[in-house]
Specification:
The structure holds two protein chains of two kinds. By secondary structure, chain A is mainly α. Chain A has one domain. Chain A has helices spanning 3-30, 32-40, 47-70, 74-97, 116-138. In chain A, helix 3 crosses helix 4. Chain A is globular. Chain B is of the alpha/beta class. Chain B folds into two domains: 1-35; 39-140, Oxidized Rhodanese, domain 1 (3-Layer(aba) Sandwich). Chain B contains six helices and five strands. Chain B has a five-stranded parallel β-sheet with strand order 1-5-4-2-3. In chain B, helix 3 (65-70) links the parallel strand 2 and strand 3 (77-78). The longest helix of chain B has 31 residues, at 2-32. Chain B is elongated. Classes of the chains: A mainly alpha, B alpha/beta. The A-B interface holds A 29, 32-33, 36-37, 40-41, 43, 51-52, 54-56, 58-60, 63-64, 67, 73-77, 79-80, 98-102, 110, 112-114, 138 and B 6, 9-18, 20-22, 24-26, 28-29, 32, 35-36, 38-39, 46-49, 132-133, 137, 140-141.
Chain lengths: 146, 141
């Protein structure tokens, strides 16, 4: 692949993934009670930790997404976003494995319950995109100047 | 050498982001105050939790009669705001003391099931929950 094409592709990927995290985080931060319900439906965390996560995760997503879009603290943000995606994937797989009929809560709202396949596919694609961005960032191929 | 300094930079960036998110979350928590109780504490129950209740819950269908006749949770009794006077004696007969009742309806906001649940709670026979997702949650499971 030609470097200029690679650079444009990375830019598009960065804006897409970063923008998605910013939107998801903003929707959750606007309705912490709704997001708390989504977290509690997984039956993984005790109430106190679920409340902490309902306040904390949205701002982490917004910050990481903003860093990716603005190309500031990018590698740190990419690593954290990758960790977040892993956590989301494990939580979704665990809910699916236990046969829970719940909405993923990925964008805060209730959404359609039980659509684990689609949510997992989306999260795996996002994780792959994050790995790719981290890989190119490390190799210094991310292109456009900061 | 460069690699280890790269790792250090990544860790510092990640740490700064984690800390900043924590500060923002703290401010947001202080501004919003305590979150309202949700889930079972607020009288709602997920389908999965309802199916695992022991003893099994008394299912109450708060949808209109034609929808109930077209299909309902096995064993569910029809009780909606319209047929309340006629149907409530039968529900009270079937409701064992201490058994939980789970009410569902077909509206997205669950208005009918909330109203029926509220009225049933007045009898104080057992916990009364509204099914999260209502009939849609059952029909998809």
């Amino acid at each position: 692949m030609e470097p200029p094409l690679m650079r444009w592709m990375n830019l598009a990927l960065r804006l897409l993934v970063g923008g998605l995290f910013m939107v998801a985080g903003t929707l959750k931060a606007a309705e912490p009670a709704t997001f708390l319900t989504a977290i509690e439906n997984y039956h993984i965390l005790p109430r106190a930790l679920a409340v902490a996560a309902a306040f904390y995760l949205p701002y982490l997503e917004i910050l990481c997404g903003s860093c990716l879009v603005l190309r500031r603290w990018q590698t740190g943000a990419l690593v954290l976003m990758g960790c977040l995606m892993l956590v989301f994937i494990v939580a979704l797989a665990s809910a699916w494995g236990r046969g829970l009929n719940i909405a993923c809560g990925c964008f805060g709202e209730g959404g359609e319950p039980g659509r684990y396949g689609l949510a997992l596919l989306r999260d795996l694609l996002l994780l792959a995109a994050l790995c790719w961005l981290l890989f190119t960032e490390r190799r210094g191929e991310s292109g456009f100047p900061a | 050498m460069r690699r280890s300094s790269d790792h250090g930079k990544t860790l510092r960036e990640a740490g700064a982001l984690l800390l900043t998110a924590g500060l923002l979350a703290l401010v947001a928590a202080c501004v919003s105050g305590p979150l309202p109780t949700v889930g079972e504490e607020a009288g709602e129950i997920t389908l999965d939790a309802a199916l695992h209740r022991q003893p099994p819950p008394l299912w109450i269908d708060a949808r209109p009669a034609p929808e109930y006749e077209a299909g309902h949770v096995p064993g569910a009794l029809l009780l909606n705001p319209e047929n309340w006077p006629q149907a409530v004696p039968g529900v009270l007969d079937a409701w064992a003391p201490g058994q939980c009742a789970v009410v569902y309806c077909g509206t997205p906001g669950g208005e009918a099931s909330r109203e029926v649940a509220e009225r049933l709670r007045a009898f104080q026979l057992g916990p009364v929950f509204v099914l999260q997702g209502g009939w849609k949650a059952w029909s998809r499971h």
